[in-house]
């Protein structure tokens, strides 16, 4: 597999990105190539400082002179910075020179670039971003968390299809229970789009659909797949991040007030929990529905996340999930307009 | 103040509701009356078992023979069960026989009944539910969390106005920082409604508007007031509830695996945290924008929450916040259609 990696994306680029790439090399197959995209001279000097000649076969550098900042407007940036690492990376995929792309840079720009250049899988109306929430009751796949903030019923249906294939193939869940995020369990609850989406999903007997789920259900083991609008999903993702951080800070504060000894005893427990339920383990989020494999990493990604993203990208590609999505949708009678 | 209390609402009605009413009596003014709404015979027998003759002056019972179940469709239930405790309670307010209403019953039915019978404050297009999140950085007021799942820009603006008055008067925050929930900090982020709402709020110089906030910001002390669509707010509210519960369960599980001694030492810390950051302290959520004071309690409310809801209801009423809302909106140049 040929993976194009945005060497300039994220808060710790390029060093942590390059370190992640190097850490992943021992785990690659001999046919795999990592294509590092960014200013060639800079990348070369960084790599030579790390004394990397022995990995020469696995690594290729493709020059890209510009960088899209984390706060730039996605569409504008993609249009204006045609030689940015994100633009060049997705162009490689579009031209058939890369099978997958990975970036920890500006998420909006990366999603926009993938959509514009790589095009959708046949049958997919709009791509969606899927993330995995590692919960006490098992991993929950949520889609969409930010690619599509004006979801139509057909988009929800296709997110359910794609997330099920993700959950089955990557997480090994044989018959994932699919819920749709709403504001009450009863069928009557939810806005019009959610209600229509529910009917569409319900009409596919191959989906193990459990109906509405509420915010609290994600962490209660009620479903394996949670489908939602990109606006709602993005709020959920970031809220979870902020709340978990805040709560641990709070607990630390309270324990410190009690005793230093207790704080000292508690620390390894927290560390163990972080390891067990660390979303960095999943490497990032997948933009599902585009031709090729696109992994989007958190802006704060360090080398371990990048390494895991490369692993996830290979796994997704090698399992042929995109082919399965195309096949499933071709056989499904459920069609819908995106407008 | 005359407060009508739905004696039959919630998972622990009527006992916990009546207990809460009784616990609140020592804190009432001599002019205050609690009107218990529900099957008169049942309530009387419960009260006489509690030997309550000495409080006779403070308590009144109004008969209502029906009860709306927690899972019934709100609009249907309100239409069909005209003698339900929720219907009768809101009718008392509509007829000028009660100044405030409190229910731990079916939230949707309570909101619908208040809107239908009590009507909106002059100038308010749509009421919204405000809750307070007790965070490490201070209390954050969020509105709307479920009354209005198809918010128009004008609704967002009015939620900002009402929540500011809530935050100032009830929480003592002099100049509350107002954020609007979106999916990125930059102005360009968000859906069309949110973008238009942002312009409306920004155009009122009396609001200390900080622009977009993300899910993570609620717990990071970035704002005092968070404005959002009722769909998003409801997901946020329930997610927070589920995540906090799940996380504490997880921590308990991990500590127990480490040592019983540590678990035993940790327990009082958790209890203290629960006390400090307990949303039950706030008694419930306020349906802001209707004529009268409407407090909506969680279905799982026990006596302490009901007691606190009665306190919150009195405080809101006595501070004259509804009058302030009316005055503010009358003076504001910002108007908008609700369609």
Can you characterise this structure?
Two copies of one chain form a homodimer. By secondary structure, the first copy, chain A, is an alpha/beta fold. Chain A has two domains: 1-124 and 289-320, 3-Layer(aba) Sandwich (Isopropylmalate Dehydrogenase); 126-284, Isopropylmalate Dehydrogenase, CATH 3.40.718.10. Chain A is 45% helix and 17% strand. Chain A has eleven helices and eleven strands. Chain A has an eleven-stranded mixed sheet, sandwiched between helices. In chain A, strand 7 (177-181), helix 7 and strand 8 (208-213) form a beta-alpha-beta unit. Chain A starts with a strand and ends in an 8-residue tail after the last helix. The model of chain A has no long low-confidence stretch (mean pLDDT 91).
What is the subunit arrangement here?
homodimer
- Backbone structural class of chain A: alpha/beta
Based on the coordinates given, report the CATH architecture of the largest domain in chain A: 3-Layer(aba) Sandwich
| Ends apart, CA distance between termini of chain A | 36 Å
The total count of helices of chain A amounts to 11
User: Average pLDDT across residues of chain A?
Assistant: 91
The total tally of domains of chain A equals 2
């Amino acid at each position: 597999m040929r993976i194009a990696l945005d060497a300039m994306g994220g808060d710790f680029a390029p060093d942590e990105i390059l370190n992640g790439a190097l850490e992943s090399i021992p785990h690659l197959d001999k046919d795999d190539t990592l294509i590092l995209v960014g200013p060639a001279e800079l990348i070369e000097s960084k790599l030579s400082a790390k004394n990397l000649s022995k990995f020469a076969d696995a690594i290729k550098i493709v020059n890209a002179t510009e960088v899209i900042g984390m706060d730039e407007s996605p569409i504008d940036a993609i249009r204006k910075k045609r030689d940015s690492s994100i633009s060049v990376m997705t162009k490689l995929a579009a031209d058939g020179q890369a099978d997958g792309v990975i970036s920890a840079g500006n998420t909006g720009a990366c999603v926009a670039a993938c959509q514009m250049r790589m095009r959708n899988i046949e049958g997919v109306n709009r791509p969606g971003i899927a993330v995995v929430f590692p919960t006490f009751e098992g991993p929950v796949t949520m889609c969409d968390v930010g690619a599509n903030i004006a979801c139509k019923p057909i988009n929800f249906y296709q997110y359910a299809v794609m997330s099920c294939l993700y959950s089955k193939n990557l997480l090994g869940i044989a018959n994932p229970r699919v819920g749709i995020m709403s504001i009450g369990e009863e069928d009557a609850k939810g806005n019009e789009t959610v209600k229509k989406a529910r009917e569409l999903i319900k009409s596919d007997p191959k989906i193990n659909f459990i109906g509405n789920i509420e915010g609290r259900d994600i962490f209660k083991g009620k479903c394996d797949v949670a489908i939602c609008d990109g606006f709602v999903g993005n709020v959920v993702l970031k809220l979870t991040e902020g709340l978990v951080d805040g709560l641990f800070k709070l607990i630390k504060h309270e324990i410190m007030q009690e005793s230093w000894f207790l704080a000292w005893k508690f620390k390894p427990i927290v560390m163990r929990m972080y390891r067990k339920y660390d979303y960095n383990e999943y490497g990032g989020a997948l933009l599902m529905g585009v031709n090729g494999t696109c992994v989007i990493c958190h802006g704060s990604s360090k080398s371990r996340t990048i390494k895991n993203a490369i692993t996830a990208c290979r796994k997704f590609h090698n399992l042929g999930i995109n082919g399965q999505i195309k096949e499933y949708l071709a056989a499904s009678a459920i069609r819908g307009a995106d407008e």
